[in-house]
């Protein structure tokens, strides 16, 4: 299933253009202009298909960035989890040694 991130609320949608219109009451083109601080030319606004292609391309780029960010966050979380596991292992090892020293006496 191919989903695209909504640049306003960050949720994933199959039809993000429809979601922006119905969910946020905005035109996807307005959102793109707002997000990238560029104005679409009147010609681009008239050319429905070209405009839609541009919106789709921009949405795909946003989607890619969001995915990259999510992957980075996931990798960072895994790193933290591994570090925590290693610390736990070290702690367990030290505690076991201490306990064995105590029980030996
Ligand atoms: Zn949204």
Structure description:
The chain has 105 residues and is mainly alpha-helical. The chain has one domain. Helix content is 76%, strand content 4%. It has 4 helices and 2 strands. It has helices spanning 16-24, 28-36, 42-46, 48-104; strands spanning 4-5, 12-13. β1 (4-5) and β2 (12-13) form a beta hairpin. The longest helix has 57 residues, at 48-104. The chain starts with a strand and ends with a helix. Residues 6, 8-9, 11, 19, 23-24 line the site of zinc ion (ZN).
What's the number of helices? Answer: 4
C-alpha termini separation: 64 Å
Give the oligomeric state. Answer: single chain
The major pleated sheet works out as:
2 strands, antiparallel
What compounds sit in this structure? zinc ion
Mean pLDDT: 83
Widest β-sheet, arrangement of strands = 1-2
> Which percent range describes the beta-strand content?
under 5%
> How many structurally independent domains?
1
| Helix percentage range | over 70%
Weakly predicted, low-confidence segments: none
Order of helices and strands: EEHHHH
Radius of gyration: 25 Å
């Amino acid at each position: 299933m191919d989903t695209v991130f909504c640049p306003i609320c960050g949720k994933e949608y199959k039809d993000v253009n429809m979601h922006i219109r119905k969910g946020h009451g905005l035109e996807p083109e307005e959102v793109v202009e707002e997000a990238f601080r560029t104005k679409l030319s009147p010609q681009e606004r008239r050319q429905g298909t070209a405009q839609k292609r541009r919106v789709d391309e921009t949405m795909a780029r946003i989607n890619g960035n969001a995915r990259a960010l999510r992957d980075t966050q996931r990798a960072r979380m895994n790193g933290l989890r591994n570090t925590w596991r290693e610390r736990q292992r070290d702690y367990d090892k030290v505690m076991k040694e201490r306990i064995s020293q105590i029980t030996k006496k």
